[in-house]
Amino acid sequence: MNRHLRTRRGRTALALAAALTLLAATAQTASARPAAAGGTLILVGGGLKDGNTEIYGEIVRKAGGAGKARIGVLTAASVPESQDPDAADPDTCSNSRCNGLYYAALFEHYGAADAQWVPIDVEHVDAADSDAAVAQVESMTGFFFGGGDQYRYVTSLLHGDARTDSKVMAAIRRKLAAGAVVAGSSAGAQIASGPDMVTGGDSYQALRDGSTPGYFADPTRLGYLPQGGFGLFDAGLLDTHTGTYGREGRAIRLAADTGHDRVLALDEDTAIEVEHTGTRDESLRVLGTHGVSVFDLRSARTGTTGGHWTIDKVRYSYLTDGDRYDPRTWHVRAGEGKRPLTATSDTPVPPNHDAFYSVDDPDGRPYSLSGTARALTATTAQRTATAGTFESAPAFEVLLSKRGDTRAWTADGTTAASFTDLEVGVHPAAD
């Protein structure tokens, strides 16, 4: 059972309260807090399958290994037990306690010597400063943050507008610096973000309307927290559920609007493992089923055409299981078993009329944009391909172009598993 997926349109009443809080908050950034160093982050793009032995096994391994790992599970992003109408049913419940116990059992299934729910949620905020919870955290060798609504982590583990650490969060930060593993999925990964953490939005509305600081009841509106999350990851913006919900467009728009030159956009059931976090030796490895989109905006240029936003010269790489990435040098090393792909097929790239898998398109498909990009790298028939938005007024068009330094790798000899340095531009479609 996957306990942390939410509907694409779903929001809780907390969003409205959060929006009011943010309007009054100062724009103090998470970068003011001490940077974590030394440990490992394992950040999953959501949709983590119970049977993903690779990711669960790696969390346990990094926490000390089978029979030794002690995992603290935090699920404050879930609703508290009193707000869950299914709280009494262990098969359908989805509250903080229920989810915490569920993940604890999963980690013990994967070999942890002990896994415990840390009983903190939005109705038990004081527990984040309790000696008992701190002692529980200090006894752990690794931590897992579950999914839900990342703003609940902000309100339950950080203090007020200043976003100072609770005692529990300070202890987790110290443990990470000393070598522990901190993992999370969906909101549990997003909360690791530094400044400008995304709070919601769909790609088409993001391209059309841009981004706004805050947290909004309208789930299609691109919002972000200038203050960020916990600030554990600072190699770029993070996004999650990318291919499943077609979030590539919102990731690019938010980075451009907020002045970031890199986004790592994580697909579901897929993680980045960040080793030696915060040190000069920091490196990333991709784990899991799908991939991680890396958008490089160092040379990007924004403008307007007909009053609508445009961007050009974004570099797009897509990394899959085993691929390694150096955030300092921007260098990619293909995973073991992959070899360079020499395009030999003359098959044209299939048309794509829904680049970002619109919720309004009954025939839409997930992983739409990455699918078009991979097809382009594998063909000799063309050097460019386009993908349009399902929505119109205006419609947008994504132009993908091979560069002289575009590279692709394959595991089966014919299809692209990974690629680097396609060029992306987004413009209003011609009438």
Automatic annotation (TrEMBL):
Species of provenance: Kitasatospora saccharophila
Family: Belongs to the peptidase S51 family.
Keyword vocabulary terms for this entry: Hydrolase, Protease, Serine protease, Signal
SUPFAM superfamilies with a match to the protein in the record: Class I glutamine amidotransferase-like
One Pfam family recorded for the sequence: Peptidase_S51
Name listed for the protein in its UniProt record: Cyanophycinase
Signal peptide: 1-32
